[in-house]
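It would be a great kindness if you could assist me with a short task in structural biology. The matter concerns a single protein, recorded as an amino acid sequence and a row of backbone structure tokens. Kindly check, if you would, that the fold set down in the tokens agrees with what the sequence suggests. Thank you for your consideration; the sequence and its tokens are set out here:
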Amino acid sequence: MAGDFVDLTSVAMSPETEEELLRTQTECTIMWPTKDGHPIGVIMSYVWHEGSFWLTSAENRARVKAFRRDPRVAIALTSTGSALAPGKGITYKGTCVIHDDEARKQWYYKALADIRYADDPDYHAQYIKSLDTPGRVILEVKPEVRLASYDGA
């Protein structure tokens, strides 16, 4: 039946809107299974670059241990808080690759600061410095399956 909320295929996000959401949103929810199989997730800032979500974490966090044990993850994001109109959301399944090379760290810190603090050059530099701590890793989530999308427009 048209207009019901059972079959949402007719309100899927267009590829153009999806790409705009990926570029303009700055936060996502990343989810993974714990050792005992329960799902858990956390909201994190990200950079969308070359078809992957890029995030950072201290290496000693439980999530990094979980990604090393099982790299399967899900990522969900909405348009809430972005420049896009509300009522848009999308979920992906993918795998997480953990990077610890210095070049990638420096690229990511600057890319995230450019997104978050482009209008504040003083804090931009301070933010990069605050991210550049011992034991930090860069997480690359490569989306493999687009599970669902919704465009309430």
Q: What stands out?
A: Strands lie at 27-33, 39-45, 47-49, 52-58, 72-78, 88-99, 136-151. Residues 102-117 form the longest helix (16 residues). Helices lie at 15-24, 62-69, 102-117, 121-131.
